[in-house]
Amino acid sequence: MENGENGDMGNSVDPENGETLQEKVEEQKGAVTGRKLFGTFEGVFVPTLLTILGVIMYLREGWVVGNAGLLGAWLIILIAFSITLSTGLSLSSVTTNIRIGSGGAFSVISQSLGLEVGGSIGIPLYLSQTLAVAMYIFGFRAGWRWIFPEHPAILVDLAIFFVLFIVAYISTSLSFKLQFIVLVVVASSFVSIIWAAYLGSMQEPITWWGSFEGSPETGFSGIGFWGVFAVFFPAATGIMAGANMSGELKNPRRSIPLGTISAICVSLVVYLLLALWLAASASNDELLGNYTIMVEKAAWGQLVIAGLLGATFSSALSSFVGAPRILQSLANSKILPASGWFSKRSGSGEPRNAIVFTGLIIFLALMLRSLNAIAPLITLFFLMTYAMINIIVLIEQNLQLVSFRPLFRIPRAVSFVGAIGSVFVMFIVSPVFSLLAVVVVISIHAYLLKKHLKTPFGDVRSGLFVAIAEWAAKQTYKIAPSNERTWKANLLVPVEDPNVLTGTFKLLRDITYPKGSIKLLGLTGKVDETKFFSRLTDLTESFRDSGVFSSWTIVDTAAFEKNLIVGMEALGGSFFRPRVLFINMSSFDGQYEKVKNVIRKAAERRIGILLLAIHSDAAFGREESINLWINDRSPDWDISMDLGNMDLSILISYKLKRNWKASLKMISCVRDKRNAPKAKEYLENLAEIARIPNVITEVMNGDMGSNLSRASQASINIFSMDNEIDFEFIRRAVEQTGSSCLFALDSGEENAFA
Question: How confident is the model over 522-569, as pLDDT tens digits?
């Protein structure tokens, strides 16, 4: 059980709400009654883009160019967006690896590092998202009073607050519809700027590197590069606007990566081009002393003001809609007091209780009239969230668990840059508030640990601890248990003649590489003992040299059958024990009844079986194709967490596909042609949920035995088998497929969907 004691993910029903995996799949595809789910453009791209293109772009980018010059401004923009883009890529990667629920970043962190860590980040993230609404309202008010200076500030704040509250309370759909209008308004402001450039506004000489003179508020007493960077950086945040709506998306696994990365790239281009226009359209004095320089230099300043109002309104609305979703998700996990009340949804699927509570906090924040004292803390909580997402991906990448197989892969350098960059910016913005933010998160984590929260899903914490333990334990050749999320191919390989094992050396290596292990169990009697020990040592070293941890042991009893059973019993008490018994039929020819007995004993001890039957001529061919035979699921072909003894065969197929860089075909047979469409859909869903890309599917008419010879030629055919193995079927499978065949029996502790 190298890594999978039974985890909660093994249930076919979600323990929190009784929801089956099939229902979750349907929910991701939008088949949920009573709730409107959204696509990539309206659900992720637009809110993310409008949040990034916010008040700092309209009122502070000119000041950044005035202080840093065009090259300095471009450098600041690129550094800021490199951190944001790295985080967006990390978010995209981990999102394609999990069945993300509601709550966005909270869901991602919780499913990877547990509810305690998720809650300790999620609660400050919720408060930051909520208080950010008040800050956006203050920004809207500044633009409004530029047009109508006689309007009382408090009345403007309250008016826009109640508009936001009503829109958020009525429906998410209405919020997204309004954002399309805002998108048009913001685009119109850019048309005004482009038209000004066309008319010849870009006549000023460009200052390539600025003198960093500071701001009017400080009497232009000077400011450093990183000081200007700290002022600009919040402009590059906002990437959680779409992720926060994860529970409202038709297909979050696709929409969050595509929408988030697209919004980041588009906004980066906008910021870079806008800096060029500003540098060439205004003097340094104008850029430094006039925060509304864009209004004055645009062809129609009214459109820029409208864009400013639209951007702040949209940012406030995105946060007002997203924050209650985080709160509701926290409540669903029983993290908060009164969780039952916060978690309720209306008939249309809106979390209205959470919206009302969020509105109350925003109203109280508005009554304070200023958030300057805690504004840095808000930014820092966002940065801590970004850092944690990057750290999660970095951990998963380094653990190299088979459960981490995102459909969108990124280099380790990306998540590393995102993590280091986020922490670096935290201490650039405010070292004191950074330490305070860390203290707050640690305090919440300590509180949640005392609650002994029950997670309805597996996470990688055990994998992290096992990885640390393995480093020490492998020094003394021990093997340890874990859970489904940290499953690895840890094989127990009985060896009577080491020369026979040499022929399957590469197959064993490819099944276990990179993080599995091989325990060679020497069975004495066939080979001279001295030579036997020497050959086992050589084989063990060869496996290690090829990147797979291996060790060996000898069990000396009178007979083959007793040897194996005693070996399994002895190793069953070890800390990191092997959980899959690999039997090469070539090694035990003529001992079929004894092999049957060994398989029964292994099944009783919850040890999986891999039974290899090698084709005498074909062997493993060119290792370029794999056929995986999926058992008949008639009559309903419903997909669930219980795959009926096919988890091990699926996981081994995936391992060989990756290490061979081979094609994989899933084949199923139906006796009734009417079931063929259901079977085809089942295979496609199986590949999608198991996160195995580029799978070919085929459904044949008739039973499996009659279709063996009709299947396309493959380097290896993989089947699942029962406790009572049919050796006649094995013989026919090898003969009729014309290839070597591998038969798998689950231990009950594998999960292809984990």
Answer: 877 666 777 888 888 899 999 999 999 898 888 776 566 666 666 666
**CATH superfamily entry for domain 625-745:** HUPs (3.40.50.620)
Superfamily of domain 17-29+40-451: Amino acid/polyamine transporter I (1.20.1740.10)
List, in sequence order, every residue forming a beta bridge with 517; answer none if it has no partner.
490, 549
**402 CB-near residues (< 8 Å, 6+ apart):** 487, 488, 489, 515, 651, 654, 655
Q: 52 with 267: CB under 8 angstroms?
A: yes
Rounded to the nearest 10°, the torsion over CA 92, 94, 96, 98 is -150
**Total residues belonging to the chain:** 754
pLDDT per residue as tens digits for the range 391-429: 888 887 877 777 778 888 899 899 999 999 999 988 888
| b (16+ CB within 10 A) / e for 643-670 | bebbbbbbbbbbbbbbbbebbbbbbbbb
Which candidate, 316, 361, 368, places its Cα nearest to that of 139? 316
The DSSP-derived string for 106-161 is: HHHHHHHH-HHHHHHHHHHHHHHHHHHHHHHHHHHHHHHHHH-TTS-HHHHHHHHH
Domains 17-29+40-451 and 625-745 share a fold: no
Q: How far is CA 631 from CA 279, 654, 753, in A?
A: 67, 17, 17
CB 239 within 8 A of CB 47: no
Position 438, amino acid: V
**Cα 284 from Cα 746, distance rounded (Å):** 71
**Does 514 sit behind a cis peptide bond, omega within 30 degrees of 0 on the bond before it?**
yes
Rounded to an integer, the average pLDDT of 192-201 is: 92
Nearest CA among 286, 274, 277 for reference residue 199: 277
Q: Is 369 helix (H, G, I), strand (E, B) or coil?
A: coil
What's the start-to-end Cα distance of the chain, in Å?
15
The helix (H) or strand (E) run that includes residue 381 is: helix 375-399
Sheet containing 716-720, strands listed edge to edge, beginning at the edge strand earlier in sequence: 549-555, 517-523, 490-495, 580-584, 608-613, 740-745, 716-720, 625-630, 663-670, 695-701
User: At residue 322, does pLDDT exceed 60?
Assistant: yes
Q: Give residue limits of the domains in the chain.
A: 17-29+40-451, 470-611, 625-745
- Phi and psi for 269 in degrees, rounded to 5? -60, -40
Alpha carbons 534 and 380: distance in angstroms, whole number: 59
> Is residue 16's pLDDT more than 60?
no
Per-residue model confidence as pLDDT tens digits over 591-642: 778 788 888 888 888 888 999 999 888 788 789 999 999 988 888 888 877 7
**Domain 470-611: which CATH number of 3.40.50.620, 3.40.309.10, 3.20.20.70, 3.90.1150.10:** 3.40.50.620
* Cβ(318)–Cβ(50) below 8 Å: yes
SS3 per-residue string spanning 568-629: HHHHCCCCECCCEEEEEHHHHCCCHHHHHHHHHHHHHCCCEEEEEECCCCCCCCCCCEEEEE
Condensed to tens digits (0 to 9), the pLDDT of residues 163-187 reads: 999 998 887 788 778 888 989 999 9
DSSP secondary structure of 437-489 = HHHHHHHHHHHHHHHTPPPSS--SHHHHHHHHHHHHHGGGT--B--BGGG---
Q: List CB contacts of 544: < 8 A, sequence separation 6 or more.
A: 550
Q: In sequence order, which residues have a C-beta less than 8 Å from that of residue 302 and are 6 or more positions away?
A: none
pLDDT greater than 50 at residue 220 = yes
**Amino acid symbol at 474:** K
Which residue reads 């009950």 in tokens? 748
- Among the residues of 703-749, which ranges form H helices? 704-707, 727-737
Residue 399 carries which side chain, given as an amino acid letter?
A: L
| Residue 154 token pair | 């408090």
**Phi, then psi, of 517 in degrees rounded to 5:** -150, 160
Identify which of 265, 215, 220 has the alpha carbon closest to the alpha carbon of residue 92: 265
